[in-house]
From TrEMBL:
Keywords, comma-separated and alphabetical: Glycosyltransferase, Transferase
Any Pfam family the entry gives: PNP_UDP_1
Assembly and binders: Homohexamer; trimer of homodimers.
Gene3D superfamilies: Nucleoside phosphorylase domain
CDD domains: PNP_EcPNPI-like
Reaction equations catalysed: a purine D-ribonucleoside + phosphate = a purine nucleobase + alpha-D-ribose 1-phosphate; a purine 2'-deoxy-D-ribonucleoside + phosphate = a purine nucleobase + 2-deoxy-alpha-D-ribose 1-phosphate; uridine + phosphate = alpha-D-ribose 1-phosphate + uracil
Protein name per Swiss-Prot or TrEMBL: Purine nucleoside phosphorylase DeoD-type
Length: 246
């Protein structure tokens, strides 16, 4: 694949080996300005801002993925195949569907269930279980322990639907209760597509999220706080990026 790609106007030297991927371009900008040293803008196609700087002397990039599996599928494919990126870490927010996982807790997606049809492109005669890269996972857990974070490791649901139309459906057929009984921790919208793309191209991927909403209790962070309340998650993500270089 040649560069620049249709969605990233940069060169391979513009990116570090590890790219942090929030969904929101403004969150990408915030991270670059508040957590990286000497950050510079390396991509702004369609306003999807990407920056590269350093953290504790390690070159790290942060670029938005947009919302949903199709969007992160595009950006992760191009970063892996055209820009030499080895590790992509989705960082963002998720909605808890577990009574023991609370707002502001961190969830690390060991696996990612999905209701998406993203897998069909690989022509697999069966199912595929999208999982995180173990090396990234174990380093992220070590980073959580290092910073004293309240964290949970397990399965998430990467759903195509932010708003589910369960009106009039009996509880046994409603979306959230069905996933709860299978032990899923939280809902988000990107991890499964990222994990499949990484698996296909022999790269590494991990999803770390802060719980911003609780779908059982109704507790939620206000919109503005969602932008700024993930400091501990960022410490975990950046310490993990540093560990990947060792």
């Amino acid at each position: 694949m040649n560069y620049p790609t249709p969605h990233i106007n940069a060169t391979p030297d513009d990116f570090g080996q590890t790219v942090l991927m929030p969904g929101d371009p403004l969150r990408s900008k915030y991270i670059a300005e508040h957590f990286l040293e000497n950050a510079r803008l390396v991509n702004n196609v369609r306003g999807v801002q990407g920056y590269t700087g350093t953290y504790h002397g390690v070159k790290v990039s942060v670029m938005a993925s947009g919302m949903g599996i199709p969007s992160i599928g595009i950006y992760s494919y191009e970063l892996y195949n055209a820009f030499g990126v080895q590790n992509i870490m989705r960082i963002g927010s998720a909605g808890s569907i577990n009574p023991d996982i609370h707002v502001r807790d961190i969830v690390i997606a060991q696996g990612a269930c999905t209701d998406s049809n993203f897998l069909h492109q690989y022509h697999i005669d069966g199912t595929f279980a999208p999982i995180a890269s173990y090396e990234m996972l174990r380093r992220a857990v070590a980073s959580c322990e290092q910073v004293g974070a309240t964290y949970h490791v397990g399965n998430v649901l990467s759903t195509d639907n932010f708003y589910n139309d369960d009106e009039g459906m009996p509880e046994v057929l409603q979306t959230v209760p069905a996933w709860i009984k299978m032990g899923v921790m939280a809902c988000e919208m990107e991890a499964a597509g990222l994990y499949m793309t990484a698996a296909r191209w022999k790269k590494n991927a991990l999803c770390i999220c802060t719980i911003s909403d609780h779908m059982l209790t109704g507790e939620a962070l206000p919109a503005e706080e969602r932008q700024t309340s993930f400091t501990q998650m960022m410490e975990v993500a950046l310490e993990t990026a540093v560990k990947l270089e060792k």
